[in-house]
Design brief:
binds NADP nicotinamide-adenine-dinucleotide phosphate, Rossmann fold
């Protein structure tokens, strides 16, 4: 029986690694992206080369109509949605709070917070047995910065991930009896293109592990939470960081 997984931000970074790894776990993968057609196509080609089924769907997760179309397309092309990973995200604007332009914070809130809400709603609408679904698993990407605070650097980003933490915890309770598990993964510093040039090289060696994490290392935790091996895990917030 087919099981479809929606991965927002599946074209690059952590979402890309989740998309590739999901094939080995029996998922058909809906690879979402916003503008990078080439990387999304490459991701789908890699999945197909590994014997999996996948479709690339451009959609701006900050737009409700795009997210609805994303889930509808996934269902039409791949079948019932049993899993959703919300990996799309941005970090900017950087800087001290006193210097930040409010207008520049709005896209961050749209993409990191509002999108997480819409993606979660669309996932629950398809997974809930009360609405014709058959349960499922949702993983939301937060960050250790919601705990660390981002002072001097990225407080809006840290605050946006604090909202994701609350969403994951609240939703996990609301849908617990519906056979829907909801978990949050909070990575530390991970070597992806979300990082400003040079940050991984500069800060990685100063971390307790002596290096930044790899996106594949985060993907493994996400894939475990999606899987039946985590059948009694919901409402968790798993830090994929190293003693920090
Ligand atoms: P990344 O390498 O920059 O990839 C970002 C992905 O999100 C891309 O696939 C991008 O699509 C997509 N995206 C961005 N805006 C979008 C939008 N409006 N609609 C749809 N897709 C959109 O980022 P990453 O490092 O994998 O981060 C993934 C998640 O982990 C984020 O939520 C991030 O906050 C979180 N995280 C990352 C780190 C880290 O150190 N890397 C640490 C903690 C938390 P395109 O390819 O089309 O641009």
């Amino acid at each position: 029986m087919s099981k479809a997984l929606v991965v927002t931000g599946g074209s690059r970074g952590i979402g890309h690694c989740v998309s590739l790894g999901a094939v080995g776990e029996g998922w058909d993968v809906c690879v979402n992206y916003v503008r990078n057609d080439e990387r999304a196509r490459e991701t789908v080609a890699q999945i197909e080369a590994a014997g999996g089924r996948a479709v690339a769907v451009p959609a701006d997760v900050a737009k409700e109509e795009d997210v609805i179309r994303l889930f509808e397309t996934c269902e039409q092309k791949l079948g019932p949605v049993k899993g959703a990973v919300n990996s799309a995200g941005i970090v900017e604007p950087y800087g001290l709070m006193e210097d930040l332009d409010y207008q520049k914070m709005l896209p961050l809130i749209d993409i990191n917070v509002n999108a997480a809400l819409i993606v979660s709603r669309e996932a629950v609408r398809r997974m809930s047995p009360r609405l014709g679904g058959d349960g499922g698993s949702i993983v939301l990407l937060s960050s250790v910065s919601s705990r660390l605070g981002g002072a001097g650097y990225c407080i809006p980003y840290a605050a946006s991930k604090g909202a994701v933490d609350a969403l994951g915890w609240g939703l996990s309770q609301e849908v617990a009896r519906d056979g829907i598990r909801v978990n949050v993964v909070s990575p530390g510093l991970i070597d992806t293109e979300i990082q400003p040039v040079g940050r991984v090289e500069k800060d990685g060696p100063n971390l307790p592990a002596g290096r930044a994490g790899r996106p594949e290392e985060v993907a493994k935790a996400i894939l475990w939470l999606l899987s039946e091996d985590a059948s009694y895990v919901s409402g968790s917030n798993l830090a994929v960081s190293y003693a920090r």
